[in-house]
Write a structure and sequence with these properties.
It is a single chain. The protein has 41 residues and is mainly α. It has one helix and no strands. The N and C termini lie far apart (51 Å).
Length: 41
């Protein structure tokens, strides 16, 4: 029971990380640069 919960939590964190990484990569444009993507660096 506890192992199933831990596996589910690990899977949820991994899927969330992949989705976050995917959406962050699609939001970036060619104009963005620098740490804060303000285009001033």
């Amino acid at each position: 029971m506890i192992q199933e919960i831990l596996v589910f939590i690990a899977f949820a964190v991994a899927v969330g990380f992949i989705i976050k990484k995917f959406f962050w990569s699609t939001k970036k444009t060619a104009k963005s640069c620098g740490i804060s993507d303000c285009g001033c660096d």
